[in-house]
Amino acid sequence: MSARVPDDDVTEDGSDTSADDVVSGDVTELTELLQRLQADFDNYRKRTAAQNEIATRQATIKLTKSLLPALDALDALVLAPDLEGAALTQRLFAQALAAAGVSRVEEIEVAFDPTIHEPVNAGAHNVVTAIWRPGYRLDDALLRPATVELS
After folding, report:
1. Is residue 109 domain-shared with residue 67, that is, in the same domain?
2. Would you give the DSSP letter of residue 139?
3. CA atoms within 13 A on the CB side of 37
4. In angstroms, rounded to a whole number, what is the distance separating the alpha carbons of residues 34 and 45?
5. Which tens digits make up the pLDDT trace of 46-97?
């Protein structure tokens, strides 16, 4: 009894098929898989963008709500200006920004640091002696350098 060598046109179950049909079926299957993966990725991208938009909006709402008392104090200052009211308003703004992670860069008698200071003069010793305008940071990011006078 000799072993039968299968023809290219006959499968094990006896049906006729060619190599081109097998390859075509594989290509179709892989194309469908790729299309599903592309759709899944597109859905993921859209979902992530929507989540980021929601998170940004919630952060904006939180910061805005924390600034409203300072805005109320400014409104009162416009109607009846006074020094105490101005100081209160400044404190309210500072507290709201601090709660959001913002800190001031306003140290004096420290070495000049070009990454956080912007000098208004050239000092011989490069020591900050006065702050003309404070700088601000949000965590590690510098929002604005401090404008400083050097000795």
Report:
1. no
2. T
3. 6
4. 16
5. 999 999 999 999 998 998 898 888 888 888 888 888 888 888 888 998 999 9
For the full predicted model, state whether its pTM sits above 0.85. no
Helix 83-99 / helix 19-79 crossing angle, nearest 10 deg: 160
Residue 39 CB neighbours (<10 A)? 10
Q: Report the CATH number at residue 138.
A: 2.30.22.10
Taking the CB of residue 145, how many other CB atoms lie within 10 A of it?
19
Do 34 and 54 lie in one domain? The reply is: yes
Structure-block tokens of residue 108 = 């004096």
24 and 96 within one domain: yes
pLDDT digits (tens, 9 = 90+) for 6-47: 555 555 555 556 777 778 888 999 999 999 999 999 999 999
95 shares a domain with 24? yes
Structural domain span for residue 63: 20-100
